[in-house]
Design brief:
Keywords: DNA-binding, Transcription, Transcription regulation
Protein name: Crp/Fnr family transcriptional regulator
InterPro entries: cNMP-bd_dom (IPR000595), cNMP-bd_dom_sf (IPR018490), Env_Response_Regulators (IPR050397), HTH_CRP (IPR012318), RmlC-like_jellyroll (IPR014710), Tscrpt_reg_HTH_Crp-type_CS (IPR018335), WH-like_DNA-bd_sf (IPR036388), WH_DNA-bd_sf (IPR036390)
Low-confidence stretches: 1-9
Mean pLDDT: 89
CATH superfamily of the largest domain: Jelly Rolls
Largest sheet: 4 strands, antiparallel
Radius of gyration: 19 Å
Pfam families: cNMP_binding (PF00027), HTH_Crp_2 (PF13545)
Organism: Devosia honganensis
CATH topology of the largest domain: Jelly Rolls
Number of domains: 2
CATH architecture of the largest domain: Sandwich
Distance between the termini: 17 Å
Order of helices and strands: HHEEEEEEEEHHHEHHEEH
Strand order of the largest sheet: 1-8-3-6
Structural class: alpha+beta
Helix content: 25-40%
Length: 238
Amino acid sequence: MQTVRQTVPDSNVPALCQRCPARHQGICGVLDGAQLAQLLKLSRRVRRPAGEELMADAMPISTYANVRRGVVKLSKILEDGRQQVVGLQFAPDLLGRPFATESRVSAAAASDVDLCLIPKNVLETAMAQSARLERRIMLQALRELDEAREWMVTLGRKTAVEKVASFLYLIATHEDANEERADFDLPLSRADIADFLGLTIETVSRQLSRLKADGVIGIASHRRITVPDLARLRLRCG
């Protein structure tokens, strides 16, 4: 699901923010030039490689992160080491739960990611001073709740091929702005996809091959996926 655009005029917006791909979406889309300049002064931009841990479960929260590029994987780790991928975040999502004292999930870079790190007290103060910002963050939280409920249906009721198709459709609609077709790299390994869908690695591979054989997708390499017709893929989502 795409974030609804609701932007303020670009007057006096810092040049660095004007070049940011997440400028007109996410939390930054409701801030004016002065607010962005203040936030930029107190924030820092970082790049993290795929696989690097960004946040550990139960870790005290000191910063939030605005995802500028890439995909972040959210997981819960059981005491015996088993992992369940519970969500994905894309640009321009906000990583971190506002007003929580500690993280409720582990977060890792599923692909190379660019992040804008914002100190916890800075963002929460800005929320208290801006009803537009507070509303935007609340809308994101509600969207993530809706997506989590939809995913419960996927995990609980859909067939294996419908689960894999739903996962591919999720990535395609976040990673590619074209409404008719998509061409993207899978941000997760086969093992992580299996964890996310509650399937085995072998089942994931079989269903990908089935969708390829049916002409719904193309597999250019181990991770490169093409979708010639997004509407047809959506039909396979059940």
